[in-house]
Write a structure and sequence with these properties.
Blueprint lengths: L5 E7 L2 E2 L7 E2 L8 E8 L3 H14 L4 E4 L7 H11 L2 E4 L21 H19 L5 E3 L6 E2 L2 E2 L1 H7 L4 E3 L22 E2 H10 L20 H8 L1
The structure holds zinc ion.
């Protein structure tokens, strides 16, 4: 899906409960007020050509959710990114979702178990690219159903995926990691992200340094492993 191929996972403030202890306010490094993870979908070549150089210049890392739309040219480039600390996530082999102009493979032909098979195949393909076994996942078109059947709990039972990103509007902000479902991590699409930041004037009181890289550039897996 081309629309909203950039999504952000955003955690603002919040309480963190560890091992059943009383929830404590999250202390972000350097007194920051929030953490943001940038995620890019669909293995687009423009991400390799444009987004990655921009991220490198800014000292940022990101998570790229790949389909099997890789070739002999792009695959080594994704492998190189993984070695640099960028994260490669699973976005299925064929990107099945409700039929639309950008989505030629219809999820109407799938059952939840067939989705598991496809996610498993993509996990193996990604293992061949980056050697990782812990994998994050982004639901194609942010749809958690195939042919009208929700497959989140099937995904949970199979244990193929550690964290899964869904969609969300401007309310898709994580404020309490203790209640977050790791297979329904909300994220703002590009349009929602723009609207949210335009409205978020109370958080805009701290000037952003453009000279130093951020202290802890994060990928989705690392970020959630520390918070959830
Ligand atoms: Zn997609």
């Amino acid at each position: 899906m081309i629309k909203n191929f950039l999504r952000v996972v955003l955690l603002v403030g919040g309480l963190l409960s560890v091992g059943g202890a009383a929830a404590q306010p999250i202390e972000w490094p350097h007194h920051k007020k929030a953490a943001i993870v940038l995620t890019y979908d669909d293995a687009l070549k423009s991400q390799l050509d444009t987004a990655v150089p921009q991220l490198r210049r800014a000292g940022l890392k990101a998570t790229f959710f790949l389909t099997a739309d890789l070739d002999y040219i792009t695959l080594p480039r994704w492998r190189k990114l993984a070695k640099e600390g960028f994260e490669l996530g699973n976005h299925t082999v064929f990107h099945p979702c409700i039929n639309g102009e950008d989505n030629p493979v219809s999820s109407d032909r799938y059952t939840p178990n067939q989705m598991m098979r496809e996610i498993e195949v993509m996990n193996r393909m990604l293992f061949a690219v980056d050697g990782q076994t812990n994998r994050t996942y982004a639901y194609p078109c942010t749809e958690t159903t195939v042919n009208g059947q929700d497959y989140v709990d099937t995904l949970r039972r199979y244990g193929l995926i550690k964290y899964a990103r869904v969609g969300g509007d401007t309310g898709a902000v994580i404020t309490n990691p203790a209640t977050l479902d790791p297979l329904r991590v909300p994220a703002l699409g590009l349009e929602g992200w723009r609207r949210w930041f335009e409205q978020a004037t109370p958080m805009a009181d701290t000037p952003v340094s453009r000279t130093a890289p951020p202290p802890n550039p994060v990928t989705l897996e690392r970020f959630l492993a520390e918070q959830v």
